[in-house]
Amino acid sequence: ETDIHQYVCDGKPIQVMIKDKPHNVCFATQTATETPVIETHSIHMIDKSGSMNSWLKKCTDMANAICGNNDNHQAFGFDDKIEDYQFPIENKSTGGCTDLILCLEELRKRLQHIPTSAQLVRIYFYTDGGDNCFSKRSGENFEQVFSQELVDIQQEFTNLTIDFTIIGIGSYFPVWLSHSARNILHSGSTSNELHYLLQGYEDIAPST
Predict the structure, then answer these.
(1) What are 49-74's pLDDT values in tens digits?
(2) What Å distances lie between residue 165 and 1, 27, 80, 172, CA to CA?
(3) What's the rounded Cα separation, in Å, for the pair 49 and 93?
(4) Whether the predicted model's global pTM rises above the 0.90 cut
(5) How many C-alpha atoms does 82 have within 13 Å on its Cβ side?
């Protein structure tokens, strides 16, 4: 009778067939396989402005579920200020206006601290997309400035493969925002689709 045991040798998983005599050990080379491990880090950016009052807990619950017990996840909440979130994210409140440029600035800071060994960074962006801070401080075109911020991030971190997912909230989510963000930053899997949490909105542009 033969027992099958799996071990790791020099980083490679192998199966060993151990026969009933302790000294009689043979390696089942036909089942020896190398399983590549991809070092992945994730950043969750969660809109906690006043308009997200009925959605924030849904978003933090989703982030908690995605994170599970993985240590390589980090999160922050944003309105017109940044709040660092620790997993599991619990008992967070909304308030303030939405500053999407501030959110991208925080994203850049966090990407700068991603280990050089990382092969994939997953970014989850939870927002209703309603920036109401930019117009108060600038006469520039918001869409152009937002897109340029994304371009600057992409050019700074060309060494990273980025999987970018937007969870668009509510019936007034601006579809252009998802196109701009994904077209510029997303370099990961083409099967990764934009996700929406919507109420009563049917006229959705495709995500690609």
Answers:
(1) 999 999 999 999 999 999 998 889 99
(2) 51, 43, 22, 18
(3) 9
(4) no
(5) 15
